[in-house]
Amino acid sequence: MGIFVNGLVFTGCHSQNKEAASEQDSVAMCVSEGMPSRAAATQKAQQEILQGSDDAKMVLIKGGTFQMGSAEFADAKPIHEVSVSDFWMDEHEVTNAQFARFVEATGYITVAERALDPADFPGVSKDLLVPGSAVFTPPKEHVDLTNHLQWWKYVPGASWRRPKGPGSSIQGKENEPVVQVSYEDAEAFAKWAGKRLPTEAEWEYAARGGLKGKKYYWGDELKPKGKWVANTYQGDFPSKNSAEDGFVEAAPVKTFPANPFGLYDMEGNVWEWCSDFYRPDAYEHADRNNPKGPADSYDPTEPGLVKRVQRGGSFLCNDQYCERYKAGSRGKGEVSSASNNLGFRCVSDHAL
């Protein structure tokens, strides 16, 4: 097992037709399977968060019934009928500006920013026990796709304020999706905003936008009428991003066309946290009406880690390596992990 650092786990995103690269979807990067005591210093403050408002425009998603899942991915089988009730969803991913207002109002400290106590990590060098997070760092030359640590690096100092570590900034990027947020961070924001994170079923129903049986959430063609309609990866992953869609990394929200429900970036741009625990067999026992996911988490590749579902893929996904932006596909992430391609959006059961 690799060394865990800062409670961080990288979500894998492997092509289904590359068996050697897809045997393990994530790598454990922390010496503790639970949250370290860095949370203790700020626990009281986090519990006292007051409800505020993110002033986000929300879209009413009228409830209905749809076919959930995908035949292309083992953990998205079987395709099954699911019904969801009406709910409201943010029209776009939570932005840096929105998250900054939340932090200013509450004093919230994200998981990636919290100090680590060496006593919680016996035997681990103190040099490694510093706040930080995972950053995509493309190699200069072509590499094989069996070891994603060739392009993912743990960067001390990386956080939502400095998504790529020291020297980076969100200045001038206020309208880009906030990244480097763990599940705990996303949940705290949602609570402050008087909202919640979407269930996996709500997220997929909204992403499909009423379309049925399509390969991608926008249809069956990768480039409808020759145009890129989502922020994904073009070129030779991970070393040469041709940026044909205009972006090497995250794009400002609402850059690409909305889906039929009026939602933006439901595919690509950044991964989005969902409230469901992750299990590869979740669909074999799923409820059919407003499912909220399994009662606990289990990933056979890392059975000791608690994971939640992530959806939508990111600017690093393409058919060469990462196909998890396709309709019905699923992602997963350890709940204290974060990266510079992971964000979220919120939902509500009533208009705000």
TrEMBL record:
| InterPro entries attached to this UniProt entry | CTDL_fold, Sulfatase_Mod_Factor_Kinase, SUMF_dom, SUMF_sf
Family annotation (Gene3D superfamilies): paralog of FGE (formylglycine-generating enzyme)
Q: Which residues form the Sulfatase-modifying factor enzyme-like domain?
A: 56-347
Pfam families referenced in this protein's UniProt entry, alphabetically: FGE-sulfatase
PANTHER family associated with the record: FORMYLGLYCINE-GENERATING ENZYME, SULFATASE MODIFYING FACTOR 1, 2
Identification of the protein by name: Formylglycine-generating enzyme family protein
Source species of the chain: Olivibacter ginsenosidimutans
